[in-house]
Protein backbone atom coordinates (compact mmCIF):
# COMPACT_ATOMS: atom_id res chain seq x y z
CA UNK A 1 0.00 0.00 0.00
CA UNK A 2 1.62 3.21 -1.09
CA UNK A 3 1.64 6.13 1.33
CA UNK A 4 0.02 9.52 0.83
CA UNK A 5 3.48 10.96 0.34
CA UNK A 6 4.20 8.43 -2.41
CA UNK A 7 0.89 9.27 -4.06
CA UNK A 8 1.71 12.97 -3.89
CA UNK A 9 5.07 12.33 -5.56
CA UNK A 10 3.32 10.27 -8.25
CA UNK A 11 0.80 13.03 -8.98
CA UNK A 12 3.60 15.58 -9.12
CA UNK A 13 5.46 13.47 -11.69
CA UNK A 14 2.33 12.98 -13.80
CA UNK A 15 1.63 16.72 -13.73
CA UNK A 16 5.21 17.30 -14.86
CA UNK A 17 4.74 15.02 -17.87
CA UNK A 18 1.35 16.54 -18.65
CA UNK A 19 2.93 19.99 -18.71
CA UNK A 20 5.54 18.83 -21.21
CA UNK A 21 3.20 16.76 -23.39
CA UNK A 22 0.53 19.47 -23.55
CA UNK A 23 3.09 21.93 -24.94
CA UNK A 24 4.16 19.72 -27.84
CA UNK A 25 3.37 21.14 -31.26
CA UNK A 26 2.31 17.71 -32.49
CA UNK A 27 1.69 14.27 -31.00
CA UNK A 28 2.69 12.45 -34.17
CA UNK A 29 5.43 9.83 -33.68
CA UNK A 30 8.86 11.32 -33.09
CA UNK A 31 11.74 10.67 -30.74
CA UNK A 32 10.60 13.39 -28.34
CA UNK A 33 6.95 12.31 -28.32
CA UNK A 34 7.81 8.64 -27.89
CA UNK A 35 10.28 9.36 -25.08
CA UNK A 36 7.86 11.51 -23.09
CA UNK A 37 5.00 9.04 -23.42
CA UNK A 38 7.22 6.10 -22.53
CA UNK A 39 8.39 7.90 -19.38
CA UNK A 40 4.79 8.74 -18.47
CA UNK A 41 3.67 5.14 -18.87
CA UNK A 42 6.59 3.78 -16.86
CA UNK A 43 5.66 6.23 -14.09
CA UNK A 44 2.07 4.96 -14.03
CA UNK A 45 2.79 1.23 -14.39
CA UNK A 46 3.77 0.30 -10.80
CA UNK A 47 0.73 -0.93 -8.86
CA UNK A 48 -0.77 1.88 -6.81
CA UNK A 49 -3.71 2.24 -4.46
CA UNK A 50 -4.37 5.77 -5.68
CA UNK A 51 -8.01 6.49 -6.52
CA UNK A 52 -8.15 9.23 -9.14
CA UNK A 53 -11.82 9.96 -8.39
CA UNK A 54 -10.84 11.26 -4.92
CA UNK A 55 -8.17 13.66 -6.17
CA UNK A 56 -8.70 17.45 -6.17
CA UNK A 57 -10.78 18.85 -9.00
CA UNK A 58 -7.84 20.50 -10.75
CA UNK A 59 -5.92 17.21 -10.79
CA UNK A 60 -8.95 15.35 -12.16
CA UNK A 61 -9.27 17.96 -14.90
CA UNK A 62 -5.60 17.53 -15.74
CA UNK A 63 -6.08 13.77 -15.86
CA UNK A 64 -9.03 14.06 -18.28
CA UNK A 65 -6.92 16.21 -20.61
CA UNK A 66 -3.97 13.83 -20.33
CA UNK A 67 -6.13 10.81 -21.25
CA UNK A 68 -7.27 12.67 -24.37
CA UNK A 69 -3.68 13.58 -25.29
CA UNK A 70 -2.59 9.95 -24.88
CA UNK A 71 -5.50 8.86 -27.03
CA UNK A 72 -4.60 11.36 -29.72
CA UNK A 73 -0.98 10.20 -29.71
CA UNK A 74 -2.11 6.58 -29.95
CA UNK A 75 -4.24 7.42 -32.97
CA UNK A 76 -1.31 9.09 -34.72
CA UNK A 77 0.92 6.09 -33.98
CA UNK A 78 -1.59 3.66 -35.46
CA UNK A 79 -2.14 5.79 -38.56
CA UNK A 80 1.61 6.10 -39.08
CA UNK A 81 2.18 2.35 -39.06
CA UNK A 82 -0.98 1.59 -41.00
CA UNK A 83 0.42 3.77 -43.80
CA UNK A 84 3.74 1.90 -43.69
CA UNK A 85 2.02 -1.50 -43.76
CA UNK A 86 -0.18 -0.47 -46.70
CA UNK A 87 2.96 0.00 -48.79
CA UNK A 88 3.51 -3.78 -48.80
CA UNK A 89 1.84 -6.02 -51.35
CA UNK A 90 0.54 -8.23 -48.52
CA UNK A 91 0.31 -5.99 -45.43
CA UNK A 92 -0.77 -8.78 -43.07
CA UNK A 93 2.50 -10.60 -43.74
CA UNK A 94 4.42 -7.68 -42.25
CA UNK A 95 2.52 -6.86 -39.07
CA UNK A 96 5.72 -7.35 -37.08
CA UNK A 97 6.81 -3.96 -38.48
CA UNK A 98 4.54 -2.42 -35.87
CA UNK A 99 6.81 -2.33 -32.80
CA UNK A 100 4.12 -3.51 -30.39
CA UNK A 101 2.62 -6.28 -32.51
CA UNK A 102 3.85 -8.92 -30.05
CA UNK A 103 1.80 -7.22 -27.35
CA UNK A 104 -1.31 -7.62 -29.47
CA UNK A 105 -0.58 -11.32 -29.89
CA UNK A 106 -0.46 -11.67 -26.09
CA UNK A 107 -3.46 -9.41 -25.50
CA UNK A 108 -5.64 -11.26 -27.99
CA UNK A 109 -4.64 -14.63 -26.58
CA UNK A 110 -5.56 -13.54 -23.06
CA UNK A 111 -8.87 -11.94 -24.06
CA UNK A 112 -9.76 -14.98 -26.14
CA UNK A 113 -9.23 -17.27 -23.15
CA UNK A 114 -11.14 -14.97 -20.79
CA UNK A 115 -13.97 -14.84 -23.32
CA UNK A 116 -13.98 -18.63 -23.56
CA UNK A 117 -14.51 -18.86 -19.80
CA UNK A 118 -17.75 -16.91 -20.03
CA UNK A 119 -19.08 -17.39 -23.55
CA UNK A 120 -21.25 -20.45 -23.94
CA UNK A 121 -23.21 -21.40 -26.99
CA UNK A 122 -24.25 -24.82 -28.21
CA UNK A 123 -23.45 -23.74 -31.73
CA UNK A 124 -19.77 -23.22 -30.91
CA UNK A 125 -17.61 -20.07 -31.04
CA UNK A 126 -19.23 -16.67 -31.68
CA UNK A 127 -20.28 -16.27 -35.29
CA UNK A 128 -20.45 -12.48 -35.42
CA UNK A 129 -18.28 -10.12 -33.39
CA UNK A 130 -18.33 -6.32 -33.41
CA UNK A 131 -15.36 -4.15 -32.48
CA UNK A 132 -16.34 -0.56 -31.69
CA UNK A 133 -13.56 1.95 -32.22
CA UNK A 134 -11.38 -0.22 -34.47
CA UNK A 135 -9.20 2.62 -35.82
CA UNK A 136 -6.73 2.64 -38.73
CA UNK A 137 -4.80 -0.37 -37.42
CA UNK A 138 -7.38 -2.88 -36.13
CA UNK A 139 -4.88 -5.36 -34.72
CA UNK A 140 -7.20 -6.86 -32.11
CA UNK A 141 -9.71 -7.85 -34.79
CA UNK A 142 -6.96 -9.01 -37.16
CA UNK A 143 -5.23 -11.22 -34.58
CA UNK A 144 -8.46 -12.69 -33.23
CA UNK A 145 -9.72 -13.40 -36.75
CA UNK A 146 -6.40 -14.84 -37.92
CA UNK A 147 -5.45 -17.02 -34.97
CA UNK A 148 -8.35 -17.64 -32.60
CA UNK A 149 -11.78 -17.13 -34.18
CA UNK A 150 -11.07 -18.39 -37.67
CA UNK A 151 -14.69 -18.83 -38.71
CA UNK A 152 -16.02 -15.64 -37.12
CA UNK A 153 -17.09 -12.53 -39.01
CA UNK A 154 -15.79 -9.26 -37.55
CA UNK A 155 -17.71 -6.03 -37.98
CA UNK A 156 -15.44 -3.08 -37.25
CA UNK A 157 -17.05 0.25 -36.39
CA UNK A 158 -15.28 3.58 -36.51
CA UNK A 159 -16.61 7.09 -36.86
CA UNK A 160 -13.60 8.20 -38.93
CA UNK A 161 -13.88 7.37 -42.66
CA UNK A 162 -10.12 7.76 -43.15
CA UNK A 163 -9.38 5.28 -40.35
CA UNK A 164 -11.71 2.72 -41.93
CA UNK A 165 -10.24 3.30 -45.38
CA UNK A 166 -6.73 2.71 -44.04
CA UNK A 167 -7.82 -0.39 -42.12
CA UNK A 168 -9.63 -1.83 -45.13
CA UNK A 169 -6.48 -1.45 -47.25
CA UNK A 170 -4.61 -3.71 -44.84
CA UNK A 171 -7.02 -6.65 -45.11
CA UNK A 172 -8.25 -6.29 -48.70
CA UNK A 173 -5.35 -8.28 -50.26
CA UNK A 174 -6.02 -11.22 -47.92
CA UNK A 175 -8.63 -13.58 -49.42
CA UNK A 176 -9.81 -14.86 -46.02
CA UNK A 177 -9.88 -11.72 -43.88
CA UNK A 178 -11.22 -9.53 -46.66
CA UNK A 179 -14.27 -11.80 -46.59
CA UNK A 180 -14.63 -11.93 -42.80
CA UNK A 181 -13.74 -8.36 -41.81
CA UNK A 182 -16.31 -5.69 -42.57
CA UNK A 183 -15.86 -1.98 -41.88
CA UNK A 184 -18.68 0.38 -40.98
CA UNK A 185 -18.12 4.14 -40.98
CA UNK A 186 -20.71 5.37 -38.52
CA UNK A 187 -21.25 6.64 -35.01
CA UNK A 188 -22.12 3.60 -32.89
CA UNK A 189 -24.87 5.72 -31.30
CA UNK A 190 -26.63 5.62 -34.67
CA UNK A 191 -26.53 1.80 -34.84
CA UNK A 192 -29.63 0.20 -33.32
CA UNK A 193 -31.25 -3.05 -34.46
CA UNK A 194 -28.02 -4.33 -36.04
CA UNK A 195 -26.49 -4.61 -32.56
CA UNK A 196 -28.74 -7.60 -31.88
CA UNK A 197 -26.84 -9.54 -34.55
CA UNK A 198 -23.60 -9.76 -32.56
CA UNK A 199 -22.66 -12.51 -30.12
CA UNK A 200 -19.79 -10.44 -28.68
CA UNK A 201 -19.07 -6.71 -28.78
CA UNK A 202 -15.66 -5.29 -27.90
CA UNK A 203 -15.58 -1.64 -26.82
CA UNK A 204 -12.18 -0.03 -27.38
CA UNK A 205 -10.63 1.75 -24.39
CA UNK A 206 -10.66 5.12 -26.10
CA UNK A 207 -14.29 5.09 -27.20
CA UNK A 208 -15.72 7.65 -24.80
CA UNK A 209 -12.59 9.11 -23.21
CA UNK A 210 -14.66 10.84 -20.52
CA UNK A 211 -16.72 8.50 -18.37
CA UNK A 212 -19.94 10.38 -19.17
CA UNK A 213 -19.33 9.73 -22.87
CA UNK A 214 -18.55 6.07 -22.25
CA UNK A 215 -21.64 5.58 -20.09
CA UNK A 216 -23.80 6.93 -22.93
CA UNK A 217 -22.29 4.36 -25.29
CA UNK A 218 -22.77 1.56 -22.77
CA UNK A 219 -26.41 2.58 -22.20
CA UNK A 220 -26.98 2.54 -25.95
CA UNK A 221 -25.47 -0.94 -26.23
CA UNK A 222 -27.57 -2.13 -23.28
CA UNK A 223 -30.70 -0.95 -25.05
CA UNK A 224 -30.06 -2.71 -28.35
CA UNK A 225 -27.77 -5.71 -27.75
CA UNK A 226 -29.27 -9.18 -27.73
CA UNK A 227 -29.92 -10.56 -24.22
CA UNK A 228 -27.19 -13.05 -23.34
CA UNK A 229 -24.60 -11.50 -25.63
CA UNK A 230 -21.20 -10.47 -24.28
CA UNK A 231 -19.75 -6.98 -23.89
CA UNK A 232 -15.98 -6.75 -23.31
CA UNK A 233 -14.40 -3.49 -22.24
CA UNK A 234 -10.95 -2.25 -21.30
CA UNK A 235 -10.52 -0.12 -18.23
CA UNK A 236 -7.75 1.13 -15.94
CA UNK A 237 -6.96 0.92 -12.25
CA UNK A 238 -4.73 2.85 -9.85
CA UNK A 239 -2.16 5.11 -11.49
CA UNK A 240 -2.94 3.60 -14.91
CA UNK A 241 -6.12 5.73 -14.81
CA UNK A 242 -3.92 8.67 -15.81
CA UNK A 243 -3.54 6.92 -19.18
CA UNK A 244 -6.95 5.39 -19.92
CA UNK A 245 -10.59 5.88 -18.90
CA UNK A 246 -11.93 3.91 -15.94
CA UNK A 247 -15.00 1.69 -16.24
CA UNK A 248 -16.56 0.72 -12.91
CA UNK A 249 -19.16 -2.06 -12.64
CA UNK A 250 -21.80 0.50 -11.62
CA UNK A 251 -21.36 2.12 -15.04
CA UNK A 252 -22.68 -1.06 -16.70
CA UNK A 253 -26.39 -0.79 -15.97
CA UNK A 254 -28.28 -3.41 -17.97
CA UNK A 255 -25.38 -5.86 -17.91
CA UNK A 256 -24.36 -8.63 -15.54
CA UNK A 257 -20.71 -8.02 -14.72
CA UNK A 258 -19.00 -11.42 -14.91
CA UNK A 259 -15.53 -10.38 -13.80
CA UNK A 260 -13.31 -7.35 -13.38
CA UNK A 261 -9.66 -8.12 -13.97
CA UNK A 262 -7.10 -5.73 -12.44
CA UNK A 263 -3.52 -6.63 -13.35
CA UNK A 264 -0.77 -6.07 -10.83
CA UNK A 265 2.21 -6.16 -13.14
CA UNK A 266 3.30 -4.37 -16.33
CA UNK A 267 -0.14 -4.69 -17.94
CA UNK A 268 -1.77 -1.28 -18.37
CA UNK A 269 -5.42 -2.11 -18.96
CA UNK A 270 -7.94 -3.81 -16.75
CA UNK A 271 -10.50 -6.02 -18.48
CA UNK A 272 -14.23 -6.00 -17.75
CA UNK A 273 -16.43 -8.72 -19.21
CA UNK A 274 -20.20 -8.51 -18.89
CA UNK A 275 -23.32 -10.15 -20.26
CA UNK A 276 -26.51 -8.47 -21.44
CA UNK A 277 -29.25 -9.90 -19.26
CA UNK A 278 -33.00 -9.37 -19.54
CA UNK A 279 -33.47 -9.87 -15.81
CA UNK A 280 -32.17 -7.72 -12.97
CA UNK A 281 -28.58 -8.88 -12.66
CA UNK A 282 -27.01 -10.09 -9.46
CA UNK A 283 -23.80 -8.24 -10.15
CA UNK A 284 -20.64 -9.87 -8.86
CA UNK A 285 -18.01 -7.18 -8.42
CA UNK A 286 -15.14 -9.62 -8.21
CA UNK A 287 -11.69 -8.17 -8.63
CA UNK A 288 -9.65 -11.08 -9.92
CA UNK A 289 -5.94 -11.52 -9.74
CA UNK A 290 -3.92 -13.42 -12.31
CA UNK A 291 -3.88 -16.76 -10.51
CA UNK A 292 -7.67 -16.74 -10.18
CA UNK A 293 -7.99 -16.60 -13.95
CA UNK A 294 -5.35 -19.24 -14.47
CA UNK A 295 -3.22 -16.60 -16.15
CA UNK A 296 0.26 -15.75 -14.90
CA UNK A 297 1.28 -12.11 -14.73
CA UNK A 298 4.46 -12.79 -16.66
CA UNK A 299 2.63 -13.43 -19.92
CA UNK A 300 -0.04 -10.81 -19.67
CA UNK A 301 -0.06 -8.32 -22.54
CA UNK A 302 0.24 -4.58 -22.38
CA UNK A 303 -2.12 -2.44 -24.39
CA UNK A 304 0.35 0.42 -23.98
CA UNK A 305 1.84 1.22 -27.36
CA UNK A 306 4.88 2.99 -25.94
CA UNK A 307 6.44 0.18 -23.92
CA UNK A 308 7.15 -3.32 -25.13
CA UNK A 309 7.36 -5.95 -22.45
CA UNK A 310 9.16 -9.26 -22.71
CA UNK A 311 7.10 -12.40 -22.83
CA UNK A 312 8.18 -15.00 -20.28
CA UNK A 313 6.95 -18.51 -19.53
CA UNK A 314 3.42 -19.15 -20.68
CA UNK A 315 1.24 -21.29 -18.40
CA UNK A 316 -1.39 -21.68 -21.12
CA UNK A 317 0.78 -23.98 -23.24
CA UNK A 318 -1.79 -26.74 -22.87
CA UNK A 319 -3.93 -24.72 -25.28
CA UNK A 320 -1.07 -24.62 -27.81
CA UNK A 321 -1.93 -21.02 -28.66
CA UNK A 322 1.59 -19.62 -28.60
CA UNK A 323 2.95 -22.48 -30.69
CA UNK A 324 0.09 -21.98 -33.13
CA UNK A 325 0.93 -18.29 -33.46
CA UNK A 326 4.55 -19.13 -34.11
CA UNK A 327 3.60 -21.61 -36.79
CA UNK A 328 1.15 -19.27 -38.46
CA UNK A 329 3.57 -16.36 -38.43
Automatic annotation (TrEMBL):
InterPro entries tied to this protein: Nicotian_synth, SAM-dependent_MTases_sf
Molecular-function annotations in GO: nicotianamine synthase activity
UniProt superkingdom: Eukaryota
SUPFAM superfamilies reported for this sequence: S-adenosyl-L-methionine-dependent methyltransferases (SSF53335)
Pfam families in the cross-refs: NAS
Region forming the signal peptide: none
Keywords associated with the record: S-adenosyl-L-methionine, Transferase
Catalytic activity entry: 3 S-adenosyl-L-methionine = nicotianamine + 3 S-methyl-5'-thioadenosine + 3 H(+)
Enzyme Commission number, as recorded: 2.5.1.43
Broad EC category: transferase
GO BP term, example: nicotianamine biosynthetic process
Family the UniProt entry places it in: Belongs to the nicotianamine synthase (NAS)-like family.
Function: Synthesizes nicotianamine, a polyamine which serves as a sensor for the physiological iron status within the plant, and/or might be involved in the transport of iron.
Protein name: Nicotianamine synthase
Organism in which the protein naturally occurs: Cynara cardunculus var. scolymus (Globe artichoke)
Amino acid sequence: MDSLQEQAILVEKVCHFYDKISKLETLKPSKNVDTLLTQLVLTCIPPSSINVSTLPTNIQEMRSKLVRLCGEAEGHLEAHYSTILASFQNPLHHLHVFPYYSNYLKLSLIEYNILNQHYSAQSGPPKRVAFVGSGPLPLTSIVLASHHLKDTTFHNYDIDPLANSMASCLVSPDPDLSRRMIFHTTDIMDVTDELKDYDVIFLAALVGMHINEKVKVVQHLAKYMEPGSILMLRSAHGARAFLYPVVDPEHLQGFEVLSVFHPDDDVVNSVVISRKNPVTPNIDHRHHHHHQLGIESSIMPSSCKYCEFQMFNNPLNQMSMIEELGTDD
